[in-house]
DNA sequence: GGCCATTAGTTTCAAATGAAACTATATTCG
DNA sequence: CGAATATAGTTTCATTTGAAACTAATGGCC
């Protein structure tokens, strides 16, 4: 049986080495750096940009589709879409088959912003990843995929 | 010179492969899974737990020290400490040399909670990391360290 | 056809958050 | 010393967020 001191040492939590904490700090730093770009220049909030990011890739999605792809909840999506529509950066069209659904798309104005922000975002990702050698990038990518799968299971249980 | 189509393809942003997005989703999933544990059982908010986590490791820190170590801002720390003190989970003592400063520490009650939560948190970290082989863990740890350093530079610029 | 359960999306309301102003104490420097 | 500046921490206020209630429409299913 371990001594009291040993049990205590075992239970010790050092934030700097605790993975969830490190992930959170890293994620926030990166997101903030990118958000600074589009929020300064275009007055976009993070949820607004996320919605634009998926609509830029695929037009005609419903709000629910957007929520699924961005891991946002439907309230967030509703509000972000509302803001984008008010600013004429996105538009809603009625779905012909289902009266509850709106089909969403960027307007020309929205697309113009998208086309400016995407290279900025990719550039920052690139700068960020430039800390890793090509082989390390592949490793990191694979490890992230494994952990994402695992986290998904965790969430369910 | 690339064709217009090629430029467009190059500028394409696919959220599922965009690292900042993947980091954010992963970090949130993991944090939420852990937060569920301590929030359900002890009614602790995330900021409250973070403060407890550093005070559990080191007693007698000032609020400012806590802010530094947790990457929280001073307002968040102030409010979390306030809540912990109200619940008699932490206590403030005056600093003898500087009247502005409070020295913070967990009470016995706070320590008891800390001693229960730490193993839960470490266990979940372990479950999470069990998706990786030992060698992969070492890799991931090293890559995270590199990226954290890089993100730190990004934040400054 | 007409009730019942479901789903899409919005609104409401309370709680969490953050920026900026504020209080109180310390420090610097003429 | 004492005015000016800086720092620790709190409060205020406006904004953001999220959970739950709500509205409107659809899809069973008898």
Quick overview of this protein structure:
The structure is a homodimer of 157-residue chains. By secondary structure, chain A is mostly helical.
Describe what this molecule looks like in 3D.
The structure is a homodimer. Chain A has about 160 residues and is mostly helical. Chain A is built from seven helices and two strands; from the N terminus they run αααααββαα. Chain A has helices at about 5-10, 20-40, 45-55, 65-70, 75-85, 110-130, 135-155, and strands spanning about 90-95, 100-105. Chain A has a two-stranded antiparallel ribbon. In chain A, strand 1 (about 90-95) and strand 2 (about 100-105) form a beta hairpin. In chain A, helix 3 packs across helix 4 and helix 4 (about 65-70) crosses helix 5 (about 75-85). The model of chain A is unreliable at about 1-10 (pLDDT under 50). Chains A and B meet through helix 2, helix 3, helix 6 and helix 7 of A and helix 2, helix 3, helix 6 and helix 7 of B. Chain B binds a DNA duplex (30 and 30 nucleotides) through helix 5.
Keywords for this structure?
mainly alpha; 6% strand; homodimer; DNA-binding; globular
The number of E-state strands of chain A comes to 2
The SSE string of chain A, one letter per element, is HHHHHEEHH
Question: How large is the radius of gyration of chain A?
Answer: 21 Å
**Into which percent range does the helicity of residues of chain A fall?**
55-70%
What is the residue-averaged pLDDT of chain A?
90
Overall structural class of chain A, as computed from helix and strand content, comes to mainly alpha
The tally of helices of chain A reads 7
Oligomer: homodimer
Greatest contact pair? Answer: A-B, 56 and 56 residues
| Percent range for β-strand residues of chain A | 5-15%
Spans of at least 5 consecutive residues with low confidence of chain A: 1-10
Major sheet description of chain A: 2 strands, antiparallel
Intertermini distance of chain A: 31 Å
Shape, per Cα inertia axes of chain A: globular
Side by side, the strands of the main sheet of chain A go: 1-2
